[in-house]
Amino acid sequence: MILPKLRELKEAIGSLFSKPVTSKYPNTKTPYEPVKEFRGKPKYDEDECVGCGTCAQVCPAEAIEMIDDKENNTRTLRINYSHCIYCGQCEEHCITEKGIKLSTEYITAVFDSNKDSDFMENEKELLICQNCGEIIAAKDHLDWIIERLGTKAYGNTNLVARMQQQNYELPESKVKDKLRREDYYKLLCAKCRHEVVVKDAFNEIS
Ligand code: SF4
Ligand code: SF4
């Protein structure tokens, strides 16, 4: 009966002078080096991301939030790493193929998840309808489409209006008291453009 107790006591005293069998986290002395293909924290590339929001839509864990602020014309894409499951869907479906990439960064531990939430934000400027103030798209998104379409972009009135803004630095013109035929080439949301086109076709606007 006494022998096991003595053995335990010997081990307890011995452990006071021996090295711990556990290692510190994160291990700063010999940090783990992930392989190239490692699926770690997704990171935005602010120059390559155009703010389309596809990554937020395809994220199965709802780890990416898309926050549109109509007052300040901004769209913020925020990755909450405590929700991310590192599936890689955001990278896979990114329309530019370079806007978001899974990095090899793997440390996501925080002391207090309420205070120290671990996230990354990416802010984009929005284009809003010159009639009703609804969101059309992120500026970078339209510019990306214009670049891809080349001369075919002249087939879309919003893209033409955006090109005019970019190339001639035209001051922003507002719709007067109501939508008129002259507003056809303004930046309009789908609903307002529909109103101009349909009402124009039925002679309801002058
Ligand atoms: S890796 Fe998966 S879970 Fe994480 S942000 Fe991307 S889509 Fe969402
Ligand atoms: S461009 Fe890519 S990273 Fe940026 S919002 Fe669209 S899908 Fe997400």
Structure description:
The protein has two domains: 34-126, Alpha-Beta Plaits, CATH 3.30.70; 129-206, no CATH class. The chain has six helices and six strands, in the order αβαββαβββααα. It has a four-stranded antiparallel β-sheet with strand order 2-3-5-6. Strands 1-4 form a two-stranded antiparallel sheet. With 206 residues, it is an alpha+beta fold. The site of one iron/sulfur cluster has 13 residues, from helix 3.
Beta-strand portion reads 15-25%
Total helix count?
6
Q: Which structural class should the secondary elements be placed in?
A: alpha+beta
Please give the share of residues in helix: 25-40%
How many angstroms does the end-to-end distance come to?
Answer: 104 Å
- Which shape, going by the Cα principal axes? elongated
Largest sheet: 4 strands, antiparallel
SSE order: HEHEEHEEEHHH
Ligand list? iron/sulfur cluster
From the 3D structure, determine the CATH topology of the largest domain: Alpha-Beta Plaits
The assigned CATH architecture of the largest domain is 2-Layer Sandwich
Rg over C-alpha atoms, rounded to the nearest angstrom:
28 Å
Number of beta-strand segments: 6
Instruction: List the strand order in the largest sheet.
Output: 2-3-5-6
What's the rounded overall pLDDT mean?
88
What is the number of independent domains?
Answer: 2
The unreliable regions are none
Q: What's the CATH C level of the largest domain?
A: Alpha Beta
